[in-house]
TrEMBL record:
Keyword Iron: yes
Entry keywords, A to Z: 2Fe-2S, Iron, Iron-sulfur, Metal-binding
Taxonomic classification: Bacteria, Pseudomonadati, Spirochaetota, Spirochaetia, Spirochaetales
Protein name (Swiss-Prot/TrEMBL): 2Fe-2S iron-sulfur cluster binding domain-containing protein
A Gene Ontology molecular function term of the record: 2 iron, 2 sulfur cluster binding
């Protein structure tokens, strides 16, 4: 089957079995920020943005992403929100190991995108299941709140309400 999609702002035509996982296809495209982890959609190591929403690539069959926009961590590093997240992680003392970066960064992005001021319960719910290899949930929650503050500062929205 031939599938057309946009990966990191470039059109791609992929020939693949429709049941082949997006994780495998992206790795074949030499996008190595997409790591192979639990393959159950829980750890976040294969996280990508699919039409601007964080999803685990290990669960997505390539056949259902026709005409979709996919962003991997390699490209997301150019987004201003990436710097907000990294600023927050640095302020919280988190030094990512490299293996789990996509899951933690894209989960943070999803939270920043969804909520002007995320509450503690939504933070911990979103962080549940992520690979704990280099940061615990409490540190990640703090990092995301720092990232929220950095985003608000960059956007000049200190006192705005969503």
């Amino acid at each position: 089957m031939t599938i057309t999609l946009t990966i990191n702002e470039k059109k791609h035509v992929i020939s693949a079995d429709p049941s082949e996982k997006l994780l495998t296809v992206l790795r074949k495209e030499k996008l190595f920020s997409v790591k192979c982890g639990c393959q159950k959609g829980l750890c976040g190591n294969c996280m990508i943005l699919l039409d601007d929403n964080p999803v685990p690539a290990c669960l997505v069959p390539i056949g259902i992403v026709r005409d979709s926009k996919i962003v991997t961590l390699e490209y997301f590093k150019n987004d201003p929100c990436y710097q907000d997240i990294i600023t927050g992680f640095n302020q919280a003392g988190i030094h990512l190991c490299g293996y789990c970066n996509a899951g933690k960064i894209f989960t943070a992005y999803g939270i920043l995108k969804a909520s002007f001021r995320p509450d503690k319960a939504s933070l911990y719910s979103a962080l549940r299941g992520l690979a704990p290899c280099c940061a615990d949930s409490d540190s990640l929650a703090a990092a995301i709140m720092y990232a929220v503050a950095a985003k608000h500062t960059r956007e000049g929205r200190h006192n705005a309400k969503k």
